[in-house]
Amino acid sequence: MYSLWTKDPKSVHESWDKYFHSLTSGPMPSLTTLGSVPALSDAQADEELIKNHLSLESMVRAYQTIGHKCANLDPLGILDSNSYRKESLELSKHGFFYADLDKKFHLPRSTYIGDGESQLTLREIRNRLENAYCGSIGVEYMFINNREQTDWIRRRFETRPVLTEEDKETLLERLIRSTRFESFLAKKWSSEKRFGLEGCEVLIPAMKTIIDECCENGVDYFAIGMPHRGRLNVLANVCRKPLEKLLCQFDPDLEAADEGSGDVKYHLGMCHERLNRKTNKNIKLSVVANPSHLEAVNTVVMGKVRSEQHKRGDKDGKTAMCMLLHGDAAFSGQGVVYEAMHLGELPAYTVHGTIHIVVNNQIGFTTDPRFSRSSPYCTDVARVVNCPIFHVNADDPEAVMWVCQFAADWRRDFKKDVVIDLVSYRRYGHNEIDNPMFTQPIMYKKIEKLPTVETKYAEKLIKENIMNQKKYEDTIHEYEEILEEAYKNSKTELATSPKEWLDSPWTEFFAEKGDSAGLYYPSTGITEDKINHILTHVSSIPDKTDHSGSTQKQKVKIHSGVKRILNARQELSEKRLVDWAGAEFLAFGSLLMEGCHGRLSGQDVERGTFSHRHHVLHDQNEDKSFGVPLTSLSPDQAKYTVCNSSLSEFGVLGFEVGYSMNDPNSLVVWEAQFGDFANTAQCMIDQFISSGQNKWVRQNGIVMLLPHGYEGMGPEHSSARLERFLQMCSDDEDVFPTEDNDHLVIEQLHQINWFVCNFTTPANLFHGLRRQILLPFRKPLIIMSPKSLLRSPDARSPFDDFIGDSYLQRAIPEDGEAAQNPDKVQKLIFCSGKIYYELVSQRKSRGLDTDIAICRIEQISPFPFDLVKEEMLKYPNAELCWTQEEHKNMGAWSYVRPRMRTVLRKIEKPHEEISYAGREVSASTAAGSKQRHKQELSSIYKASMKL
C-alpha cells in the first residue's frame, strides 16, 4: 500500500494518505539494525517499515492506556499487576520478539519518551515506557477526548524532572512532622479516638506541595474539605494552627460550651492565615467543618470557593481554589461525589478546577474493596468528567511530590479537576481503639511488619548522602520538643474560644453589625418610587445578553405568552398591587440596588417550575441570546445570578450553603422543583443547615423555597414535609417569652436555629427575603412556597404593605366582620398557608362570616406566642381549632398544639382544648386520586366550619 501511495497518493484511502504524509514529513523513517540482515526489496522494506511502525504505535498506546494496571501502586504488595502485563504488554502481543530488543526504531509522534532523540532501541523504548507508566505512578488519561490536554499530559508525564536535594530534604522534614505528630498523640492519649493518618503520612507533604505550587501560580486562598481521618494532622502541619489550641481539645475537663461546638474535635474546621515559605506570601487556609457524612462537605466547599471568587472578581479561579480530600470507600460509594464533579464545569457552579486527593486505605471501615465497589478503582467516577487520574504508591514520597506538582500545573493551565489517588494503608483500625485483625488478618499481618514511610525515605536519603543520621535524629528531636512545649502550654491555655474554630469568621460583618447585645429589628420597607422603578423595569422587554455577559443594544424577541405575563404584571402594578412573582422581583431588585449580591439557584428556577417567575427571557429567534431584567436596574447595582442547576438536590443545596456561609452579605436562595424533592438533600439539611450554628458556631443565611400545597397531584408533588423542619426547631414549646421585653421579636429570632414560614401574601415573602439580609445576624429561612397562590387573585398585596414602616407579619389576625363583633364569634380557627383562602371561601358560602374568625400563622417558628395570645383574648367565647390540609401526623399540628397550650396556660385557661381539622393520619403524604383529594377536602371544610 505504501509503495502504491508513493506512486499515486490518490490510489489509497484518504485516511492512509494522511497517515503516510505524517510519516514522511521530515526525515523519512528508517529501520536500522545492529547486525547484518538479508537485503530486502523496496516493496518488502516498505511493508516491513509500516508493520514495525504500527507495532511500535500499538505498544506505546498499550502503555499509555493500560500501563497503570501494571504499575507498582500497592505498598502492601497485595494488588497483582502481573496478569495485566501478560495480557497486554508482552512484546509478542504487539508483533515483536526478544530478538528485536536491540534494533533501533523511529519514535512515533504519539510519545515524548525520546527527550530529543528521534530513534531508540526497542529495549530502551520499553524501559522508558516502563519507567513512565509502570513505576510508582499509574496515570489514567487516554479517555480524555481533548487532544491538547492528552498531549499536555503525555509530554509532562513522559519527561519528568527529578527533585533537587533541597526538595528532598524538605520532603523528609515534612514527613517527620506528619509521622511524629501522630506518634505524639498516640503516646499522650492512647485510648482517645483521633482518626490518625498512620499509613498515609505522605498526605501532609502532598498537600503542602500543592499549596506551594498553586501559591506560585497566584493562589492565596485555599478552602479544604476532608473527612476526619488525618484532620488533626492537617490542622497542625498544613494549616499550622497553634498546637496548644489543638492539643487542649484533648482535655477531658474541657466543657462542651468552652469548645464552642456540639461536635467532636476531628469534625471541627478553622480559618487561618499564615506565610507560605516557598513564595514568602501570606495565604489563607480554611478547613470546613463537616460531620461523619464523609463526602457531604464536597459541594459546600465548592460553594464557599465560588463565593470567594465572586467577592474577589476572580473570574478564572486564579486566586482562590478548592482542595477536597476523600476516603476510597466514600469516593466510590457516595452519590454526592458524582454530583459535585458534574457541577465542576457548569458555568454558574464551576470553581475552575478542584484538586481531589483520595487517601486510599484499601479498606472501608471493615469492608474489603471487592465488596464495596464494582469498579477496578475507587476513582472511576472521575472518568465521566474527563478528569485525569493519578494513582501513586504512597510509600514513594518523591513520586507523590511529582504528581502533586503536576496536578497544580494542570489546574493552572486548564482550570479543570484532577484526582490524586494515594494508594496507602491504614496502620490501625477504623479508629485507634478498633481491632482490624478481626476482619482483615492477612492485610494487618503485612502492615505490622512495614516500617513507616518516614523511616524508609530517611534511609534512602542517608544512602544518597543527602542526609546524615545525626541531622535526621536532630530534626526529629527538634520537632518533638516543639510538641512537648505545646502540650505544656495547652494545660495552662484558657479554654479555646469558639472563634478559634470558625471556618468562615465574617470579621467585617460582625464589626459592622455589632454583637448580640446590640440587637435590633430592621425596617424592611422600601419607597414607592423604588417599587414603581423595579416593577416597570421587569415588565419591559430587556436588551439582549449572551453567555459571555455582554449586552447588545437590541431587544429580546420574547414569546407572546411571556409578553402577556409582562403586560399583566405592569397592569397589576398600575393598580398598586403585587403578585407573588412581583414580590420576588421587588425583594431581589431592591437588595441589588442597595449593593447586595443576589443568587437564585435550583432546578428550572430561571423560568420557575410553575412558569410564574421568568427572570430570564429567551430570544425566540436566536440561540444563546436572552435578557435578565434584574441585572440592569441601576448602573451601580450588585450582581444578580439566576441559574438553572443540574438535576441534583443534595449537591446543589450544599453548594448554595457553602456560598452563603462564605458571604453574609449575599442573598442566596435555593428552590426545590417540588418541596418533596428536598428529601434527597436531607443530610445537608440535618447536618449543615439546621444544626450548623450549634455544632460549629457557624451562622448561615441560606433561603430554601420549597413548593408546598395539596392540589390533588399525589404524594410526590404535595408536601415539603413541613413537620420535619418544625421538629428540628430549637425553641421550647413550654416557655412563653417574656412579654415586658421590647426586643421580644428579635430575641426570638436570635435564639432559634432557623425560621420556618408558610406565607400567604406576597408582601410577607418580600419582607422575609429582605429581612434575611438586614438582620444583624444570619439564620436559615425555610419557606413553604405556594403553587396555586402564585396566580391566585386573592394572593395579592397592595403597595402599602411594602413601603415605609411595613414589616413581616408573623401572624395575620382576622380583619373581616368577625373582628367587628368579637364577643359573638363562636369559633377561632388558626391555620397556615393556602388553606386560609379556602376556609374564607367556605365561611362565606355557608354564611358564617360573623361566627367564625380565622387567624393565619405566617411565621410558624419561632412561634408568635404574643400574637396568638392576643387573638385568643380577643375572642373570649370562641372554641379554638387548628386547621391544616396536611395529614394529622404531618404538617404543623404537632408543633403548634403544645405551644397553643402554653398560651392557654398563660391566659389561665389550661383546660381549654384545641380541636383539629385536617386529614387523618397516613403513611403517605397525599392521595393520588383527584376524587379522594376532593373528599378529604370536603371533610376538612366540614370539620372546620362545624359550630
TrEMBL record:
Identify the Pfam families for this entry. Answer: 2-oxogl_dehyd_N, E1_dh, OxoGdeHyase_C, Transket_pyr
Q: What is its EC number?
A: 1.2.4.2
Question: Taking every annotated instance into account, which residue ranges of this chain make up the domain Transketolase-like pyrimidine-binding?
Answer: 578-792
Cofactor dependence is on: thiamine diphosphate; Mg(2+)
Is Mitochondrion among this UniProt entry's keywords?
Answer: yes
Superkingdom as given in the UniProt entry: Eukaryota
Task: Give the CC-aspect GO terms.
Answer: mitochondrion; oxoglutarate dehydrogenase complex
List GO molecular-function terms, semicolon-separated: metal ion binding; oxoglutarate dehydrogenase (succinyl-transferring) activity; thiamine pyrophosphate binding
Q: GO biological process: what's one of them?
A: tricarboxylic acid cycle
- CDD domains membership: TPP_E1_OGDC_like (cd02016)
Q: Which UniProt keywords apply?
A: Glycolysis, Magnesium, Metal-binding, Mitochondrion, Oxidoreductase, Thiamine pyrophosphate, Transit peptide
Q: Does the keyword Transmembrane apply?
A: no
Q: Where in the cell is it found?
A: Mitochondrion
Tell me which NCBIfam families the record gives: 2oxo_dh_E1, PRK09404.1, PRK12270.1
Give the protein family.
Belongs to the alpha-ketoglutarate dehydrogenase family.
Q: What does this protein do?
A: The 2-oxoglutarate dehydrogenase complex catalyzes the overall conversion of 2-oxoglutarate to succinyl-CoA and CO(2). It contains multiple copies of three enzymatic components: 2-oxoglutarate dehydrogenase (E1), dihydrolipoamide succinyltransferase (E2) and lipoamide dehydrogenase (E3).
Mind telling me what this protein is named?
2-oxoglutarate dehydrogenase, mitochondrial
